[in-house]
Amino acid sequence: MRWVVGWSSTTSGTVRQRAAPPGTYGGHDHDAPTVHPVGAQLLWGDPAPLWAVGDWRPDEVRVVRLDPLTRLAVLGRCGADDEQLRTGLVAARGGALRHLTAWPGSYTAVAQVGRRTTVVGDLAGARPVFHTAWAGGTAYATAALPLADLIEAQLDVGHLAALLACPDSPEALADGTPYKGVRRVPPGHALVLRDGARDITGYEPTASLAVSAAQLPPDQAVEGIRNALVEAVRTRLAAPRHAPDPGPGGLDPGPVPGMGPAHRRAARGGPAPGVGADLSGGSASATLALLAAGLPGLPGTPLGHGTGGRLLAVTFNDLVTDDSRVRQAELERAHAIAANPRLRHIVVAAGEEALPYADLAGGPLTDEPGPSLVTAERHRHRLAAGGADHLVGHGARQVLDAHPARLADLLMDRRRRHLLRPVSALARADRTSAQALVIPFTVYRAARRLARTSYREGLEAAAGQLRATAFPVVDDTPGAAVPAGMGGAVDASLAALTWCRPGPAARWLTGEALAEVSVRLQAAAVRPQGLAQRPGERRAAAALARHAADHRILEQAAEVRSQRLHAPFLDNEVVRACRALPEALRVQPGARAAVLRAVLAGAGVRDLPPGWGATSHAAHAAAVRAGLRASAGPLLELFETPLLADAGLVEARVVRAALHGAANGRALPLDGLAELVSTEVWLRRLLARRGTCWTGSAAPRQRAVAGGVAPGPVV
What we know:
By secondary structure, the protein is α+β, with helices and mostly antiparallel strands. It has 25 helices and 19 strands. A hairpin with a 5-residue loop joins strand 3 and strand 4. Helix 11 packs antiparallel against helix 17 (535-557) and helix 14 runs antiparallel to helix 16 (511-525).
């Protein structure tokens, strides 16, 4: 795991020009005890020190200076050159923070101007910023666990309850983390510190609620998306190539009978040299692979090893569910796309060892819990065959697709005719239902109801739903079995046409936990946070933030040594370009595939296989159910004495009954079970850890959450 950490403390008088010895936590007392992170690289010293911790590559850490106390650190993959960084620093010195976020790539920017330090987060939330009060000032980091260690924080059980009950609702989660006292900076905001005092400010312009913002023509919006994606991919390709570290095994052992270099590398578990990309046959990953293969000058690899100038395209083949026609069609599309001479295609076959819920006991501790923990081994199996720099299509659905609540936004703008195609598509998706003819009217009424519901009324209704003894929770897992009714897609859309709704795991929480979350929602209802946003816009932003956070957890849980995952769809400039897509175009059926097809056509790629852009949710749901069946024994054992029950969040027998029913094919929310299991696994890994992130004479005497999970109800 890689992270950045620093702090700003209260000082008396002016800041001295000479930096204090590294590690003093005030900058004003050279005799103060020292504390510094383990394995850190000091970027600049006191009075407001900054470190980079972890296995950062040399080209991923850049620092530019205008004078000794005006400097900018950019960590990650950034497409700006040094002169552009200096220009951005000059703009930030005058308060224009948005300039620090407008370069292609994915990175964290930290600017120090005199006594003011500014830490800028990204728009999606894939590169978050955390902060906490410490030593008379404020400490910040790009990971929450190091700050929890620094202040010896205990577990915030109330936040875990909100994360399980309403994972898509920023109102319930607020700015909290699983650690008491550690706070998160919202996406699209920056943390500004001055002598230890902190302020959180947004850097994106806000649109008026009364008057809809001017929208770009569709062709111009698609062109903006194409330019942003091309620059994002080019930024990754232009970076220096790194040969994978052979690790503890040392260098390649040389000739082995029956094994070539690729087989020996795979046995060691490292990635291939050079650039790789997912190629699932879907629209998002295929777009990135084709853009990367089509850009001129694909970099080679050190010492002439690697792909020989071709992009390594990796397709995952699940042998357990390979009888699915959807999976077979996806493989055929991937093979057709891989006919491109600039692609070198490999298919990674996997059996039960790569099903969801496999090997939950052997993964690393992540910064926070996330549903991706249950599929980490599945992703690691695929990524180990990828490149040292590997492109993935994560986030495309969240930035391009229309959240169902955007139908209410169209009604607020009096554009009713644009609702015709999406509601008709929902009716066609459930032709077997006896109520299919009334589906368009039902969806329209729900959208109109949301458009006429105020933000406060929506939150209060969700709080009341949590306090009820029973409330409907829709199985919105695409492709999963659903109870009799209008159908999965229709039910999920109707449930999403709200300001706030319980998550799929809420049905298994205790009454005390749900009551605690309802109090959070009622408190948020009286705050004016959501008054300046439309319901669809706010719900779409929350869904993107949740997906970006889970992608970050996936990077940590499925990390392959010497490999970097790149998700260009989560870059700032790509998110901005996708937000400029007109609502009327976004809500149309198949909009994502149409937009990406236009993006590829503008880049010169027009020969796409039949069925390109089809979804594969049914195959994913089948794999999840197969994983539940294969791991039913270990999962039931995991919830014999769960820590979640000790914390008062669930009853063990209820969760065991749900796991047993889902493994036997009962229609239950699979996403909710994944959230419960991943949170329990994360708690066990957290409480089993040893050591701390800090060292020095003033280092914390105990690790974070040393007190464990206290039994009893949530209070």
